[in-house]
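Priority: low. Protein: Malonyl-[acyl-carrier protein] O-methyltransferase. Input follows.
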Amino acid sequence: MTALHDKAAIAAAFSRAAAQYDQAARFQRLSGEKLMALAPPAAAGSKVLDAGCGTGYFSHAWRMRGHCVTALDLAPGMLDKARENGCADRYLQGDIEHLPLEDASVDLCFSNLAVQWCTSLKAALKEMHRVTRPGGKILFSTLAEHSLRELREAWSQVDDRPHVNHFLSAEAIADACRPYPHRLYQHTETELFSSVPGVLHSLKGIGATHLHQGRHPGLSGRQRMAHLLAVYPQRQGKYPLSYQLILGVIERE
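Result:
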């Protein structure tokens, strides 16, 4: 839960993906819409922090509800795209584990599929809790350990090297939330692709290609890729990729 993550490499991977991110981010939009549906009614002009804003899709959605939105992202390329799209009232480059905001300075903290890139979920939640005012709420979504199961299992038949990041268990996510009044919701979502390269390109398109475990030379050679295509599971002639999605609502007392 506290393994060191190379934040510069993560930021670079997502910056490279910024230009094509919106075309590839179907699952990210699905997750964010489910998360927004858990938000209570809030007065117009409430201060919302979009922590891990990406290109600003949900920053814009909150702004359209009449709120004052701060868009924050670790990746400068993503933040530049959000700024170009005019999605928020303020833009900050920063790390969710070290938020550049004052205590109790926002009414709602919203973080869609970003905290799985943090070194410590506990630290990220503590920071979001710190910057949220008493009576406010923290909404977050993240991925749990069985996410990308089909891709991980297929690669395991090719070699014994890491190709897919590992995610926290649902139990570990619940443990990180334990200090606060909270509710957690779990969903399994599966995308179907017409080809295995389509599966891989979907992850590349959203920037989710950085490996916490590190890379080895020659991992995606032609023979290994041919083997991957041969062993990847199919469902009704399509290639599935599943996500174990966790949605969390934390009450700021």
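Strands lie at 47-51, 68-73, 90-93, 106-112, 132-143, 182-193, 239-251. Residues 185 and 192 are 23 Å apart (CA to CA).
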